Fold this protein.
Amino acid sequence: MSAGFERLRRAAPVTARIVGAVFGGYALGALASVAALALPISAPQAVITGMLASFVVYACAVIWMFLARSARRAWAGLLIAAAPLALAAWSAASAASAAGGLLP
Amino acid sequence: MKPTRNAKPQGRGVRQSMSDLHTWAGLLAGWLLYAMFLTGTVSYFKDEISQWMRPEIAHQRVTPDPAAVAQRVTDTLGTVAAGSSEWFMQLPTTRSNVVDSFWRTPDWQPGKRAFQDATFDPSTGAKVVARDTLGGEFFYRFHFQFYYVSPIWGRWLAGLCAMFMLVAIIRGVITHKKIFVDFFTFRWGKGQRSWLDAHNALSVFGLPFHLMITYTGLVTLMMMYMPWGAHVALTTPAQQQALDRQVSAFLPPGERAGVKAPLAPVDAMVREAQARWGRDNVASVLVTNPGDTQARVVVSRGVSARVSTSPEYLLFDGASGKLLDVKDRVGAAAQTRGVLYALHMGRFGDLPLRWLYFIVSLAGTAMVGTGLVMWTVKRRQKLPDPERPHFGFRVVERLNIASIAGLSIAMTSFLWGNRLLPASLAGRADTEIRIYFVVWLATLLYALARPARRAWIELLWLAAALLALLPVLNALTTQRPFWRSVADGDWVFAGFDLMMWALAALHAALAVRSARHRPRANAADRRRAVALRHQEDA
């Protein structure tokens, strides 16, 4: 039992990194793609810009998740990067719903 | 990277975990990536493969006039696709000798296919009289959505593999400081070291291309992978359409007036487009609501002389034939996307560029392949008893054999099936594809049943034999043997035969090398392996 627990405890940081890389990275990419709507360009162009950038953000997030010194730091970095993107995404989304869409 | 004395202890742990991730995720994604790379590589000659797989259609010496072809096929669609709200036709090019067409199913109901398709003969406008086959389109579709899984799941799976690849490449650039030294270091015939050097050299040599091709591959399907921005910003159908118009010339049919009007001559519209873009630079014609006063005709520009797939087209009133709109530009972001998309497809260039794409992609395929082989070579030396590896090792080893040597055999068998199946067979195109998968599975069973080394050698020889004999089979079953193709100046068929022999030689060379290779696992080797591992980790 305790041996099993010990193994679990040792596997936890790596698991946390992998989950953060695969799903957290995607979430960050998705957030960036929505945050791009805050750019001062027409909606279709902003949507495409967000899509193009999202894969770069995703890839960088994955690399960060494995380069950070600890799993904790990796996750912290991910959340810190997410904060401004979330803010921009949130403002763009509320602007879009207020305008009933962002068509120029 | 050399371990520096003051490196933090965690540093090595992270590099190790990155390395482990590359090793294990690389193994899982590698099998799929290898198949994606190889089928994608041959897809640069998709049109030529399709030509070869329809030998009944004569070699196209001169590209027929797109205007005349468009009119002929439009006339045919008037009866074949009567009542449909939308017709589409891809006009012949210097590389394609047929008209691929599809149309919306008339009176569509849920459960029925939304579109129907057919292939037409440009010279008559009638349906082609040729064996039923998916042609090169099969490899092309398999490349990004596999088969026997829904296209949606297939594309997500392909995207996941591509994402892994992207991370592996970027990570490689960041952590691999000795990248240029490695490029000039090649240790032939040194077992694992040679595999490592080959893997590194192939990766570095093609690195800019691999980075480009992987990223642009994700871009081709980004609308599906990252729909969130569009979900948030574009809430009405009109807004969604505004986005679609930035990336595609495929206009949906508008409202019908319900008043009948014959379609104006389509050839005149295509001529107008030719005057702008050149005789052979008209890619396709789209007709919506044919036979109605609200009919529209979209004539799209080809991709030659522009490195972009962004929509450029002329929009005509289908009833009067009047030019309504000239679409010749899209926004900056959309144009960026169009260029990236075009870079992935490689259709903008002539033959030399296509060959360059083919060769560098083949190097990419080899990069994934050598990586997979390295997994087993590296571990075999560390096994307690290399003669009797444990179960997991054996499974990986056999899957490698089937996914590398087996895939060559399966793909060639698909082409053999094209020549051997009777033309009248019902469901013929599907049977060709079934042959591909059944043969692939058979190579796996064979690899499981034989000793690994024997399986490699025997399957590589089988692939070489099938490839070498394909031109012979072609000579026996069609009227277009190699010598006649050469005499007729038909370089699609002659080139195909030559390519099969070149690939046969490649497989034979690999088989000979595998046969010569003697995996040694004595104490000295194991010591070297340990030393090498340190070198790699560092």
About this structure: Confidence is low (pLDDT under 50) at residues 1-12 of chain B.
